[in-house]
UniProtKB/TrEMBL annotation:
It is a multi-pass membrane protein. One of its GO terms (biological process) is ATP synthesis coupled electron transport. Its main location: membrane. Residues 132-413 form the NADH:quinone oxidoreductase/Mrp antiporter transmembrane domain. InterPro entries: ComplexI-like_HydComp (IPR052175), NADH_UbQ_OxRdtase (IPR003918), ND/Mrp_TM (IPR001750). This is Hydrogenase-4 component B.
Length: 673
């Protein structure tokens, strides 16, 4: 069996999942097991297909001979294989998790969800592999439509309908920019095949315009600011296993499309390409995590965190553009490697966190962190796995998030190699500072997310009565948590794969990293020291073991278990830190950006001494909405009002419009001759 056979088998398995969900729709338990098993098998074969491609050569498979647009083929090169690896890993675990999670949807159109779920994975696979402009745009729209139906699965809820509507509008706006970018290249190149599109970017004006169009179009799907507004609405509305796929994989389709344009079609560009991307990335990273820290909705918090992590990925890509434009291919390879490695890491730990949040929501029926608490006793395994994901996304050492962010730090530190002078040094310092601030705020954010959700006492009856998630949901989460640890302690195999992939664009010698075993990748001739993470982990464990031995030798002290001392009062959930209270110091520091507004409502029973209750309501102002979307909204409404006045309903007036347009066309035509 070769890569072509595995690719076809992958497509067949997803199609089988779709058909089985429809055929078996009256037997929900069977649908749940069969359809999601087909999805898991399809993702597994996608991983095997990616491995075969990395071990061999690029595979081109003809799919459809379209008489008007020409041959449509699937091209399995190393870039496509890397993204197949990402969707395969996350998709397989999400599909296994869905077998347990979707029991919640028995009697609520489960077969429709299972069919759309398989179609969603199928469309993502096709986005990563088709190498024809028209075919890419078709499967891109299919992916958008299918994910719209998944977001709107619980359409009875108004908030879900609104989220799905905004998602559909924003992604179609982005698609319009993508279509324009493709057509500009295709018309000038004279072909719709990806292999020939690079010939369409010979004019500098066209290249600059295509870059901007691709950045806006794919940036909308990725969720970079300011075109991110759909993401914190759609991800919480979708079922949790779908949220894991949307955040872990779907937004990465935008990174894939952008990478195709920048690596395949356009190549190295002027410095302002990289600077623009770095600025947008830094804004997305800092504001994304800042808004996540203010959120009390657990899934919405994770959604805003995805905006932050897309910003970190684009920091690496922006640095790579600058280095490639100045001929520093070695540093360009380092920056792109950091971006792609963080892309993989984010797919793993963010899907783990969404699956953990899904377990919490399933067992407590709430996403409000303020109504949770104490779940570490009721759901200890879920708590431990969520903690692993929180440590990874906070970039703590020995977890995978630390590796990719450290590589991104290295790339940004070397920016003066491309941006010379005091301006280059200042820019490097600012972007490094932005990444450092992002990491610190992310750590605070997930201390809040884990601490308020799982520690202390339950704040509601639902939290106090929660039970542990079933094994079929815990095992996929455990695999992803193990992946976070493996990718953090042993990054060399993935870095070697990325090195081989980037060698297709910069040459084998241009991205030749040297990394000692064990250690982190660093470019030859630029930096020598390596950070031996596995040995550091061994030393840390040895230190812990030594401390335990000393503790045992000195004897075990007698311990008495009791309630926390609170001056003789039994502690209650009302004495705990709230999520809102935890974030107040940071809210105060960044008040100029967040512009918080607090309302205090006092309720009393007429007594001056007891019975008085205070309720606080906090509102955060989203500055980008006021600066960008509200003016656009006002312009659209004004234009609609003008068109409404034109559309009077008078037949005579409409005939006059037709006559006027006809006269104008005749005059214009005669003037040309």
């Amino acid at each position: 069996m070769n890569a072509s056979d595995l690719y076809l088998l992958t497509l067949i398995l997803f199609c089988t999942g779709i058909v089985s969900a429809v055929v078996l729709r009256k037997h929900e338990k069977t649908v749940n097991r069969v359809a999601h098993s087909m999805a898991a098998l399809g993702c597994t074969t996608a991983v095997l297909c990616a491995i075969f491609v990395f071990a061999g050569e690029t595979v081109v498979m003809p799919l459809i001979n379209w008489s008007f647009f020409g041959m449509i083929s699937a091209r399995l090169d190393r870039l496509a294989a890397f993204f197949l690896l990402v969707v395969g890993l996350v998709g397989a675990m999400s599909s296994l998790y869905a077998v347990g999670y979707c029991r919640e949807y028995y009697g609520r159109r489960l077969w429709i969800m299972a069919a759309w779920y398989n179609a969603f994975l199928l469309s993502i696979i096709l986005v990563f592999t088709v190498s024809h402009v028209v075919a890419f745009l078709v499967v891109w729209e299919v992916m958008t439509a299918v994910s719209f139906f998944l977001v709107n699965h619980e359409w009875e809820k108004e908030v879900n309908r609104r989220a799905a509507y905004i998602y559909l509008v924003m992604t179609h706006i982005g698609t319009a920019f993508i279509i324009t970018a493709f057509l500009l290249l295709a018309v000038r190149a004279g072909t719709f095949d990806f292999a020939g599109l690079a010939q369409g970017g010979t004019s500098e004006t066209v290249r600059n315009l295509v870059f901007l169009l691709a950045l806006v179009g794919f940036g909308t799907k990725a969720g970079i600011m300011p075109v991110h507004i759909w993401l914190p609405l759609a991800h919480p509305a979708a079922p949790s296993h779908v949220s894991a796929l949307m955040s872990g994989v779907m937004i990465k389709t935008a990174i894939y499309g952008l990478s195709r344009f920048l690596l395949d079609f356009l190549g190295a560009g002027p410095d302002w390409w990289g600077v623009l991307m770095l600025v947008l990335a830094a804004v997305s990273a800092v504001l994304g995590v800042l808004y996540a820290l203010m959120e009390n909705d657990l899934k919405r918090l994770l959604a805003y965190s995805s905006v932050e992590n897309v910003g970190i990925i684009l920091l690496g890509i922006g640095a790579g553009l600058l280095f490639a434009g100045s001929g520093q291919t070695l540093l360009a390879g380092l920056a792109w490697s950091a971006a792609f490695y963080h892309l993989l890491n984010h797919a793993v730990f963010k899907s783990l966190l969404f699956l953990g949040a899904g377990a919490v929501v399933q067992r407590t029926h709430t996403k409000d962190i303020e109504r949770l608490g104490g779940l570490i006793r009721r759901m200890p395994y879920t708590a431990a796995l969520f903690l692993a994901g929180a440590a990874a996304i906070s970039a703590l050492p020995f977890m995978n998030g630390f590796i990719s962010e450290w590589l991104t730090f290295q790339a940004l530190i070397y920016l003066p190699y491309s941006l010379s002078g005091i301006g280059g040094r200042l820019a490097a310092a600012l972007f490094v500072t932005a990444l450092g601030l992002t990491g610190a705020l992310a750590a605070a954010c997930f201390v809040k997310a884990f601490g308020v959700t799982f520690l202390a006492k339950p704040r509601s009856a639902a939290a106090g009565q929660a039970t542990e998630a079933p094994a079929v949901m815990l095992v996929p989460m455990a695999v992803l948590a193990a992946g976070c640890a493996v990718l953090g302690l042993w990054p060399q195999p993935v870095l070697a794969v990325l090195q081989a992939m980037l060698a297709d664009y910069y040459g084998a010698s241009g991205v030749a990293f040297r990394y000692a075993w064990p250690g982190l990748a660093v470019p030859v001739g630029v930096a020598q020291p390596v950070l031996a993470l596995p040995w550091a982990a061994v030393l840390l464990l040895a230190g812990v073991a030594l401390a335990l031995v000393i503790f045992r030798l000195r004897g075990t002290p007698r311990a008495t278990v009791g309630e926390t001392w609170t001056c003789g009062i039994v502690p209650t959930a009302r004495m705990e830190y709230t999520a809102t209270g935890f974030s107040k110091p940071i809210r105060t520091v960044f008040a100029a950006i967040l512009q918080p507004r607090r309302e205090t409502v006092a309720q009393d029973d007429g007594s001056a001494y007891y019975g008085r209750r205070l309720a606080y309501r906090l509102h955060i102002r989203y500055v980008l909405n006021d600066l960008f979307y509200r003016p656009v909204h006002a312009v659209v409404l004004s234009g609609a009002q003008a068109l409404k006045n034109i559309q009077s309903g008078s037949l005579q007036l409409y005939i006059g419009y037709v006559l006027a347009v006809t006269v104008i066309i005749l005059v214009w035509s005669t003037s040309r001759w």
